[in-house]
Design a protein that fits this description.
15% of the residues lie in helices and 45% in strands. It is mainly beta and 339 residues long. The protein starts with a strand and ends with a strand.
Length: 339
């Protein structure tokens, strides 16, 4: 069987520079980031001829399109591709001796001000999708709204906050995740991804595991239910509701929330969202494996052979690295809640 190998295909401002990069490449990394964060890539190069510091030095906003080619990975003659997407250079540094350079790029157009510029705005009679569409347009991104519901607001105040941070905060309160990837602003419900079939099963002694870390702590104890109660200054009658997920134990701690809500439906939605936010912190782990292009943010995997940590997990972020040690993949995962 031919040797496993991974190769990079890199286009820089539309020109294929794969060969030039290969001659001086130290390592390449691509992060398919968790919701609320930007996908990014980093290219580290040796630069003894100082070409990357001089004539080839990158500029802010330069475009990098990257793809990882995996050859003979699972069987002889196999060719697999991992398209990483298109990124824009947002930082550059060099150090030495020996001289090396690092080029970093992100999935958000660097000319966009939605991540850095703080502003204030009153949003009136608006939906979450409308807010997202407005912000996507300003950033020259396409909007992909795949959440199962579209909340409506009489008024929302954005106060000295960047657009992307404001959108992330608003969506998170509704239990909706956001991500900027491949030229798109994506809003989605993580529960839909949790229901998908696992892309692989990982078992010690059989899978291509390099390292793993599982843990539990009483500070992240799972709650049995969530109770939301609120009494406005205009009324003595409280709004109160309790959310108990399917399959919850008969006894255990109850998460209690005292936060302004406008009715029972909003209170129930807040209770469910708050319980998910707390309980999904219980089952987290990190794994490092031989490179696997199936592993991406939003995919699910099954863990077996780790006893109390066995189960189905959602991949929150996946980092793919090509370098002197070959092709490796690092993932951050959390246990699927099942509701």
């Amino acid at each position: 069987m031919n040797a496993r190998r991974a190769e990079l295909v890199i286009e820089y401002n539309g020109k294929n520079v794969s060969k030039a990069l290969a001659e001086s490449l130290l390592d390449f990394s691509y992060t398919d980031a968790a919701p609320g964060s930007l996908d990014d890539l980093q290219i580290n190069l040796e630069d003894r001829d100082r070409k990357w510091q001089g004539a080839w030095s990158p500029a802010e906003g330069d475009q990098i399109k990257a793809e990882i080619l995996v050859k003979n990975w699972n069987k002889d003659g196999e060719l697999l591709r991992l398209p990483c997407g298109t990124f824009e250079v947002d930082s550059f540094e060099f150090s030495g001796p020996p001289d090396t350079v690092s080029i970093k790029a992100v999935s958000l157009p660097v000319g966009s001000n939605i991540r850095q510029e703080k502003r204030s705005k009153a949003w009136e009679k608006v939906t979450l999708k409308t807010i997202a569409a407005d912000i996507a347009k300003k950033a020259n991104l396409k909007l992909l709204y795949s959440a199962p519901f579209n909340p409506t607001y009489e008024r929302l105040d954005q106060t000295e906050q960047a657009d992307l941070a404001f959108l992330n905060d608003t969506a998170t309160k509704e239990g909706i995740a956001i991500k900027v990837s491949a030229g798109q602003l994506v809003l989605f419900d993580e529960r839909e991804y949790e229901r998908k079939a696992s892309v692989l099963t990982i078992k010690p002694g059989i899978s291509d595991l390099i390292s793993y870390k599982f843990s539990w702590s009483i500070t992240n104890a799972a709650y049995r239910a969530c109770e939301v109660s609120y009494t406005s200054g205009k009324s003595d009658k409280p709004i109160k509701t309790t959310f108990v997920p399917p399959g919850a134990p008969a006894s255990g701690p109850v998460l209690k929330i005292n936060e302004e809500v406008k009715g029972q439906a909003e209170a129930l939605r807040l209770a469910e969202k708050s319980l998910r936010d707390k309980n999904k912190e219980v089952g987290r782990a990190s794994l490092s494996l031989a490179g696997d292009i199936r592993l991406a943010a939003g995919t699910t995997i099954t863990i077996t052979g780790f006893y109390r940590f066995d189960g189905k997990y959602l991949v929150e972020s996946a980092g793919h690295k090509v370098g002197s040690s070959g092709f490796t993949t690092d993932i951050e995962i959390r246990k699927v809640l099942g509701w």
